[in-house]
Amino acid sequence: MTIRYDDALRNRIREHLTRHDRRVVSDPSKRHAAVAVVLVDSQVGEDRVDPAPVEDWIAGRPMPEDLDGRMVDVSGGASFLLCRRASRLSSHSAQWALPGGRLDPGETVVDAALRELDEEVGVALTDSTVLGLLDDYPTRSGYVITPVVMWGGGRLDPRPAPDEVVAVYRVGLHQLLREDSPRFIDIPESPRPVVQIPLGNDLIHAPTGAVLLQLRWLCLEGRNDPVADLEQPVFAWK
């Protein structure tokens, strides 16, 4: 069942974020980055075909069960924007990500999230659309990420920058409430559990998966569970 994109949802999410005692990570050895969690409206069935050339990236990649990497049949009602990064990027190529990047000198996390949203997916919003911030998430690749939750005010019209983003998807918030989500697995390289968020025909891992899990727990369910200790898969450590 989809979630209605309306004022009641916006007010509920804003209230949960306002009441939340946000966890801040202070680590001078890491660079600071911000990501935009943009909430938009969408229609059921508008995403039956994945616009990205997934077969170019999946060859040889071990995929669990019957997953094929495609992001299809996930739209409908209140949604968030999710990006498939371009395959030509030097790091984290072809991975799933929220719009975002490192802070420029003198920028706030809100300024950086808004700027990266415009640069990466061609969506220009103002700071008046910000509902609040999720917890900081420290990554293995040397960043502290601050997620900024924004209310898009409708469907919006993403125009991805081809050098950075190959496709932008509207993923229904109801997909975060799937019975098989979240998933946790153990790896020999770390004592911390690796988080996996099933979406479409793929699995979203931390850091993006951790942010999406807190989007569910805090914004939708009002839970204050931490996510910073959830592990990333080894392929995302660099």
From TrEMBL:
Its cofactor is Mn(2+); Mg(2+). Its EC number is 3.6.1.-. Gene3D superfamilies: Nucleoside Triphosphate Pyrophosphohydrolase. The gene is nudI. CDD domains: NUDIX_CoAse_Nudt7. It comes from Mycolicibacterium aurum. This is NUDIX hydrolase. It comes from the Bacteria. Residues 30-195 form the Nudix hydrolase domain. The keyword rRNA-binding does not apply.
